[in-house]
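call fold(seq) -> C-alpha cells
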Amino acid sequence: MLSYFELLNQYRFDEVVQETLPWVRSNQEAREAFLRVFMLKEHIYLLDKSIYTLLQRAATSENPYAQYALARYHSIRHPEEDSGQSAVHLFKEAWNAGVADAGVGLALSWSFGDFDEVDYDEANYYVEEALKMGSSMAKLRKLKNVLFGNDGYEANPDEALRMVNDYIRQDEEAGIAPNGVWYMLRGRIYNSMGDCYKGLPDFTRATELGIVPAWFWRAYATGYENGEELLHKQEYDALLLEGANHNDAQCITCAAAELYDNLDDIVGDDDEKRAAISNHIIALYNRAATYGYTLAMTQLGDIFRDGSLGQEEDIESAQGCYAMAALNDDEDGYTRLLGLWADEKIELDDETATQYMLKAVRLGSDDMLEYLIDAYNDGRLEDYKEEIEKYYLPRYEALKEQEETENTESTENTESTQTTEPAPLKSTGEALEAYAKTCIEYCDRAEKILQDHDDPSPIADMAREVIRLGGWLGQFEHTLSAAYTATSRMAEYLYEHPRLLLRLKETELEILEYVEAAQNQGRSMNITEDLRKEINQLRANIQAADEGRFEDIKTKSMLKSDPVEWTKEYEDAIDAADHEAYQHLGDAPRGMGFCFAYWAEKRNALARRGIEWRSPSRMNPGVMFD
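ret:
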C-alpha cells in the first residue's frame, strides 16, 4: 500500500484527502499530507467535486482540519453564492480550534478585503501568529511576501532564498517528507535573480514531488536557460506537453497562445480548418480557465470581446470570462469589466463600478488608482476613508511624484516638447552637464524597459528629448562624447519608429561630423561612412513605404517583419497600441510564452486603429520564438 506522500508524489490528490481525513486529528503524517493538498490553489482546482461533499460532512462533525480545507475550497473555487462568507466563517472556526494554517486564510481575508476592509497589519499579525505555531501555509505566505513584495513588504530575493533554504533544512531535520512547494519556490527565486537555468534541478524535483505548476517552470528553465532565448525547442515542447497532461494550466495556455498567434499560417485559406482550430484554441483556454488560471480567463474574454478568431463579438461571454477572473482575485478581471462598462458594452450602476475599482486597486492595479482617488474625492467612498487614506492615497501620490520626477529630469520635460515651444537651451557648464546626465538617464531607462519586457511606448518621447539635447551637446567640444554616446545608445533601443530613428541617426551623424572636424581635420572615419549608408537605407525604406513599394524595403535582419511597420500610419499608432496592449497584459509573467500574448494584444490594439499587422511568428513560420 502506498504511503500518503507517495500518493502526493503521483498527483493523486483525491486519494490523499480520502485516506488522511479520518486520521488528521491523531496522526501527524496524515495531517501533514492532508494539509499539503490545500497549500496550492492549482491542486484544489484538481479535486473531484465529491471531495467537496466529503469535506462538508466532516466539517459538520466539527473536524477543524476539514473546516480549514473546506474554507480553502470555498475561497478558491467558490462553489456557492455565499462562498466568501462561508470561507471566512470556517477559517475562524478552524483557527479557534488550533489549526495554524487557518490563520493564513484569515490573513488573506484581511489582504483582499473579505472583511469589507483591507488591513495589512491584521494580515501580517495572523501570518506571524501562524508561524509561531509552525504553519507551512504561513511560511509560504511570508516567503511570497518577501519574494514579490506583497502586504507592505519590500521585495527581497536574497532574503527569500535564505528563508526557503531554512524551510528545506527544517523539514530534513524534523524527518518530514520533502515538500515540493519549497523546491518550486527556490527555483522561482533563482529566476528572479536572473539565473533561470540554476532553478532547473529544483523545478525537476518539485515535479517529482507532485507539484503541478512546477511543470511550466521546468519547461521554461529547460528551454530557455538564460530566460531570454529559446535554445532547446524539442525538450521545451515535450515538457509543456507533459505539464499539460498533468493539468498544468500555464502549459495549456502556452499551447493555446501559440496556436492563436500562428493561426493564419496554419490554416491558410481553409475555412473549415480555421473553424476547427479556432474551436480547439477556445477549448484549450477554457480548460486552463477551469483549472483556475486567470490569464487564460482574461485572454479568452478578449477573444470573445474582439471576435478575434473570426467569430462575431460576444460581449456576454467576454463578461463571463472577466467576471470569473475577478472572482478569482485577478485585478485584470475587474479592469476588463470596467473597460466594457466604459465602452458602453455592458451596464453597471455607479456603486458597482466604484466597488470594482476598489477591488482592482486592492489587488494591486495602478491603472484604476487614479479613478478610485477621483471617486473618493467625489465623496463616493466614505465608508472606506481610513483604508484609502492609509494605503491608496500614499501610493497614488508616490506614483504621481515619480511620474513628475521622470518628466522634469531635464530643463524642459518630454511632454512639453510635444505640446509647447521649449525654452532655449543654455550653454553654461552646469546646464550642459545636466543635459548630458538627462540623456544618459533616458538611455538607462529605455534599456531597462526592454530588459524587463515592459511597455515600450515611453521610449519614443525619450528619443525625441535625446535628439533635442544631444544635438545641442554636439555643438560643444567637451560634450561631444556624451552627445555621441546618448544618440548611439538610444538608437539601439528605439524600435518601430523609422522616421524618428532617421532623425536620431541624422543627429548622431552631425555629432560624428563635429568629432571628425575636431579630431581628424576633416578625415572621414569608417564609422561615419557606415552610419551614412544606414541613413540612406532608412530614407529609401521610408520612401518605399510611403509609395507602397513594400517589396523594395531592405533590412539586415534574417527574420521577416510586416512591411506595414515602415508606414507613417503604423508609426503614429504604435505607442498608443503598445500602451493598450500592456495594460491588458497586466502582471502576466514576462517569460516563456509572453511574446504570443503580447503579439495578440498588440494586433488587436492596432486593428482597433485600422491597421492590419502580422506578428513575427506569422511572418516567419517554423522559427522558434519565446
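Residues 410-419 have pLDDT under 50 and may be disordered.
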